[in-house]
Amino acid sequence: MANREKRSWQPREMQMLSEWLRKVFPKSVKMTRVRLGSPKPAEPKAYMSPEELAMIGAWRRWADALIIEEDRVILVEAAIRPEPGDISKLELYRMLLPATPELAEHKAKKIDLVLLYAIEDAATILLARQHGIACIEYKPEWLPSYMELLMPRERRGVRL
Q1: How far apart are CA 86 and CA 101, in angstroms?
Q2: Beta strands 72-79 and 61-68, pairing class
Q3: Of the candidates 122, 116, 119, 115, which has an alpha carbon nearest to the alpha carbon of residue 154?
Q4: Long-range contacts of 131-134 (CB under 8 A, 24+ apart)
Q5: Is the pTM of this model over 0.90?
Q6: How far does the chain reach from its first CA to its final CA, in angstroms?
Q7: Which helix (DSSP H) or strand (DSSP E) does residue 126 occupy?
Q8: How far is CA 70 from each of CA 1, 23, 74, 95, 150, rounded to the nearest angstrom?
Q9: Element spanning 145, H or E
């Protein structure tokens, strides 16, 4: 077995997402790593310590990106290689957006979901589309050099 050097972690998905946002939505209001949901529990529980209550906001979920347009909000989950869990993340984000105080002015807008990916996983894409999620392939220029770092099984998704 070949001795593979461990690759260092880099925020490649956020790099891919940022590039795509700049190209496709140059003039739109864009936010990345957006915390969603209520920062406080609806009712503080008697058993919660002050430290636990203070931490509640830190447990909020975050969307990779939010694009705010006049008539809609687009929630984006970015993945080099998408996985089925990305679908449930997007659906959860759609549910949490109206409960996010920082986004209160947008809670009545239509919410569109987008799964942005670089390596196609046909099964995940099919399932996402069945859930009404737009699936967009984006291959950044640096993708081929990144692919060389991956194990062969990581270079492709599930094929149908």
Answers
A1: 24
A2: antiparallel
A3: 119
A4: 131/87, 131/91, 133/87, 133/90
A5: no
A6: 29
A7: helix 122-130
A8: 55, 19, 11, 20, 40
A9: helix 143-147
Q: pLDDT at position 46, please?
A: 81
- The span from the CA of 35 to the CA of 85, in Å, is 18
Sequence length of the chain is: 160
Q: To the nearest whole percent, how much of the chain has pLDDT over 70?
A: 78
What is each CA distance from 34 to 14, 31, 58, 141, 159, in whole angstroms? 13, 6, 12, 26, 32
Domains of the chain: 12-38+52-154 (3.40.1350.10)
pLDDT of the residue at 3: 46
Give me the residue label for tokens 């449930």. Answer: 88
Helix, strand or coil for residue 122?
helix
